[in-house]
Specification:
Elements lengths: L7 E5 L9 H9 L3 E7 L11 H20 L4 E5 L2 H11 L4 E5 L4 H16 L3 E5 L21 H10 L40 H4 L4 H14 L4 H4 L12 H5 L5 H12 L4 H19 L21 H9 L5 H13 L4 H14 L4 H11 L5 H12 L14 H8 L4 H6 L8 H4 L7 H6 L15 H16 L1
Parallel strand pairs: 1-2, 1-4, 2-3, 4-5
Helix pairs in contact: 3-4, 5-11, 10-11, 11-16, 13-14, 14-16, 15-16
Bound molecules: flavin-adenine dinucleotide.
Amino acid sequence: MSSPDAPSLVWFRQDLRLADNDALIAAAERGAPMAAVYVLDDKAPGAWKTGGAARWWLHHSLAALGADLKKRGIQLILARGEAETLVPQTAVRMAAGAVYWNRCYEPFAVDRDTTIKAALKAEGIAARSFGASLLAEPWTVKTQASGPFKVFTPFWNALKARMPPSRPRPAPAIGQNMTNIASEDLASWNLLPVKPDWAKAFAEQWTPGEAGAQKRLTGFLEQGLDDYRTGRDLPGIDGVSRMSPHLHWGEISVRQLWHAADARGGPEAEPYLRELGWRDFAHHLLWHFPELPQKPFSAKFVEFPWREDKPALKAWQRGMTGYPYIDAGMRQLWTTGWMHNRVRMAAASFLVKHLLIPWQEGEAWFWDTLVDADLANNAMNWQWVAGCGADAAPYFRIFNPVTQGEKFDVDGAYVRRWVPEVAKLPGNFLHRPWEAPADLLADAEIVLGQTYPRPIVDHAAARSRALAALAQTRG
Ligand code: FAD
């Protein structure tokens, strides 16, 4: 066993913050000199390498973390390659006595971390992991029969019974540090797009990093939380917290969010806390059912008659389906790396039900384009929309892309912002331009099929086709 004075190494992953960071706090309490490491490991299996938009976020978040650590005299070592090799190697090189990290729940991360823990222990280095990303560790919330939950409401009741979570702790005071360990240069990782710079509008919307997360939380508590119950359904206003990328990268602890919302909102905070509960539920499902990102939870969907339709998939990805509400969402996603939840549901439903394109295609597109791309949340929600998930929307509930827009974007502000081609149409035709009379189209400078597409599928026909496919699946 190594001596208690041997240095500590903190391995940062999806916990890019100093406050309420259990691994960092434990390392500080240990008292020995400290260094920190982040490993860019692109060996994630299959399609789950960090996507394009998330890489933009990661670049800025690491820059912020590196600067925050530096102010405290701690070096953030950047290394690229397989974490199985690099984490033990770094620990051995600095003669570390302990390596600490906060847990991730992706199946490949769990396997990798188990291997690393064993390798470190074999070197006589203490290795400890902590739970700092969720309200409760996935294996601690159990049904009466000690099994995992598959339905949200009983999960939520069981989780709530254990709340509040522990109080968030401030960034620890750090004594001695280690510096001057070889590190790669962040810029050399090329995490930012070069040409074309599709992320050019991201910086207007987002401030990655711990300070940006704290600022956004303060803004939401002051301006959004009180009206969240109704405001969260309206994509045209600033009615939600937009904390999702900050939460994914762990720039703020969910425990802090819980306490802050609860203290500010009292009973009015319940709908918001419930959303945080959905996030925990997604991780609970991923932990217990590691095939969630690729395999339908409901076995009967294995035989579902999905279609391959590359032109339709492309039209959906580019926001050119001819349904303004869907197109607005897909363009908001492309331009800002984020889409409002109400529209995510309608856009996802359009892909899997109107177009009968496999949910995994949509999941992959979201993975690459969302700054909040999160394996658990993305997989659970796609399966929910597709109707094949654990606690899913019934398949026969097919979002109507016109009436969804008319209900949640009543004044048309959302569509007008993201689909300027139809912005001059009056409200009664904004969500259904193909029904507008010729003179109105002319006044609005719209030539359907030229300045804006005609619908790529007819809603009623697509709905019947989807229901027929479901009937076939049921046998
Ligand atoms: P708020 O309404 O302010 O909610 C607060 C927090 O609660 C969010 O930041 C998020 O962490 C959590 N949350 C809210 N809704 C959900 C939900 N339905 N499931 C799980 N957690 C939730 N969210 C992601 O973080 N990453 C994803 O990759 C992702 N993919 C999605 C794919 C589809 C098809 C759909 C329908 C939803 C997806 N979501 C995903 C969930 C949800 O849309 C986003 O979390 C939410 O829109 C983020 O905005 P917000 O932070 O303003 O949310």
